[in-house]
Amino acid sequence: MKKIFLLILIISANVFGQKKVGNDIFKMEFLRTMTNLNGNSNDYYTDLVERSMFSKKDSLKYGFLNSKGKEIIGPKYTYASDFYNGKSNIIKDSIPGILLENGKETLFTEYNATYWYKGNLGIAIKEKKYGFIDTNGKIIIDLKYEDAFPFYQGYASVKENGRWNYIDENGTKIFTDSLTFSYRPIIDNKAVFMLDSIKVEKNKSMITENGSRTFVEFLNKTGHIQLKEGLIDTNGKIILNPIYDEISGYYQNEYMRVRNNGKTGIIDEQGKVVIPIEYEDISDLKDGLFLAKKSNKYGMINTKEEIVIPFEYSKIRFFNEGLALVILNGKAGYINKENEMIIEPNYKFNFMGDFNNGLAAVRKGDKYGYINNKNEIIIPIIYDSALPFKENKAIVKKDGISFIINTNGEEIKNISEPYLWLDRDNLIRFAK
After folding, report:
1. Spatial distance between the Cα atoms of 32 and 7, rounded to a whole number of angstroms
2. Per the confidence metrics, is the pTM higher than 0.70?
3. Strands (E), 354-399
4. CA distance 361 to 385
5. Could you give the CA distance from residue 406 to residue 240 in angstroms, rounded to a whole number?
6. Bridge-based pairing state of the strands 95-100 and 87-92
7. Could you tell me if residue 213 is left (phi over 0), alpha (psi between -120 and 50 degrees) or otherwise beta?
8. Phi, psi (deg, nearest 5) at residue 39
9. Number of neighbouring beta carbons within 10 Å of residue 41
10. DSSP letters spanning 243-260
11. What is the CA radius of gyration of the chain?
12. pLDDT tens for each residue of 128-169
């Protein structure tokens, strides 16, 4: 078994800075995950949008339909991603490229790989060097970096001479090399940084070059150095001193999730502790509530650390249309905001089981269907898979064929393929 590096992009639908709830900017970060798979990485493509890998040996071809099922781009691509800002990343006959919504296709034979997200510039890779190009393939920022991630809010993470930093769309470096950064993006003009130049004294304590012992510590169990993290703005002003093991969330331009000594809490931008750093985990913020884990059980707390839903569930999801999916004694049910069990836990867990358009996808045995908030089965539990409703449409799969149904369970005609995805730009992506 060979190790394969899988590049994953975890992208939030909300834009940080709009003060929308549930907006965790560091879940927009670009994560590198080492994944063990059978086979060689050359046998796989990486889906940067859907966070998955698929075999190059697959005979599937990708195309696009409109909302009425009319084919607008035929199945001719080895792979095609969702459209982001009018651009889809494509692979055709092992050549990377870009597809615009007007059908214009551009392939880049001179590069090993290309990738666009929301910016005007895309990453280009050639002979293990990274740079940035426009949609015509013109080099805008030289291919000189050891690694790079897409532009977001005007900045991109790049690695040069073994160190991460940030550049703007002119290729200008934002920070000096005196600070240490990771690949995490700049969001709302803020970046996570760590202190650099760490050395060990004879007594095993850890100090910085200026002699400070404040920001780093020795991890006794593993012997690893733990660099502390803080926040800095693009003008070089330190917003938050590096005193935390990890800063992994930022909500509503106000709250940050931090970790120290394996525990999680919430602070505000001034560094004031809002939620004590004593929880096993704290999730995103939505509708003024955090999902939190304590003593291996999940519940919900508000920004005042008041317990809204007791810590008594094995799993819990946010409220959607007034109900939250919970797992109790290994079964899935739904509670209301008063913690009353509205739908008894008689279903198998389905992480896609939130209520949308008045219906929730539920699982019994190995089959899926849909119920309403009165636990009435509205669409029979007969499908091999079922996704949540979106704009009164849902994708279901039965006997190897995917198709789209409405909230009455009626199949939308002329839309059935082996694989279907509802795109973000009101298109339907398919593969056959």
Report:
1. 5
2. yes
3. 360-364, 367-371, 377-383, 385-386, 394-398
4. 9
5. 49
6. antiparallel
7. alpha
8. 110, -175
9. 15
10. EESEEEEEETTTEEEEEE
11. 24
12. 999 999 999 999 999 999 999 889 889 999 999 999 999 999
